[in-house]
Amino acid sequence: MQTIINICIPLISALIGGFISYFFTSKTKKYEAVLKFKEEKYSNLLIHLQGFVGDTTSYKGKKMFFEEQYKSWIYASDEVIVATNNMIQLVIDSQGKTPDKEEGRKAVGNIVLAMRKDLLGRTKLAYSDFQYTSVHMEK
After folding, report:
1. Tens digits of residue pLDDT in 122-133
2. DSSP state letter for 96
3. Looking at the whole model, is its pTM more than 0.85?
4. Domain count of the fold of the chain
């Protein structure tokens, strides 16, 4: 009987340890894959935000942004969705007039900030730390 116990306890311990190790490894890999996916998608969304900013404002840029924004409902955090919706509302409210530059800067900065928080968990930056520099193309 003692021999059976001496064999079973290490075997059971090895099985439980292997399961726990597998569980945490697979969970970590899944988290890393989701993080990489979100990083790529947020990058696309951020690039297309240029359609609303400075000299890069264009119909095509806005259209591409909205295509990415619709897709973001599948993967983006609630904070990113809310920040994006706030910017879209600002655009709708300012149609036909010049939008307030500071409100626009705040809306875009809040989107970027929400993305950082979703990807990094926390940040010490504020919306005002995000700066977009418009580059003029020579003709």
Report:
1. 889 888 888 776
2. T
3. no
4. 1
